[in-house]
Amino acid sequence: MQLSYLRIICRVIISVCLLPIILWNFTAVADSTPTKVTLGTATKGGGFQLFGQNLAEVINAADPTLQIEAIATRGSKQNLLFLEEGKIDIGLVEGNAARQALDGIGRPAANLKVLSVMYPNPGMFVVLANSPYKSIDDLKGHPVAFGTRASGLRILAGDVLDGLGLLPDQDFKQVILDNAADGPRLVLEKEVVALWGAGIGWPGFVKVANGPASARFIAPSPEQIQKILSRHPHLKPMTVPAGTYQGQEADINSVGLWSLILVRSDLPDEVVYRLARAIHKGGSTLANRLKQGVYTTAQNTVEQVPDSRLHPGAATYYRKIGMRNN
Q: pLDDT-derived band of residue 22, with 50, 70 and 90 as boundaries?
């Protein structure tokens, strides 16, 4: 009988001693589980889809404790909606769409924050190099593809053309796309005379420029740029460097805004800190993968985004690496 009691007491003692080890192992396993983060991109064939997929892969490689899932959406407007509804954690948003949402222009102000800038988006048209069209006025009355219905690039197009006294749906035969990839195809097949787009290394422009007929780019003239900026001063002068696209021998000057990576304001500071750190750590890899990736830097973020717009987790990281003084 005494032996049985001793056995029970020994088992209890062993269990108590082993409990911390069991709990430690459980915690270690739990801690090793990557934090899942959903990233809203855009439709296939667009710049956001390409950028978003590469960004997700770069972050995942830079920080194995994060697991970024890039999901296709209809673009900036849907990304904003999904962020506000909590359906995604981070989203790629064109600068004009982001401005309207964050400033509450035509809608209630969105309670969202900035993780990082993406890249500048100077807007312009692309046509076949052998076409007769050489100016924006030449395109009037002709079929022009202006992007997908939810694309923020259509907001930029509206502002640029409004600055010139033009409207996409009245002065052009406006074509709205179901998928971003349809745009360059329609140009190459001559179903539209031009495609509106923006950005550095934008896939639609790349496809037309690399096509058999090559490409010509049509941007506002210097005088037109001044007219646009006087009517829409929120836009910024921007340049597409020479050689960005095949056959582009000179810089192209236009106007636009920086596209942004937005996050839910309630995303934990610690998670956003790790996201900002991973983007910074993987910056050279992203730049090697994409021409536009060279712009996605901490330096550009702190220069382009006011403190009040940054997510606290991102701001903390930028302070740690000396990008902010307070």
A: very low
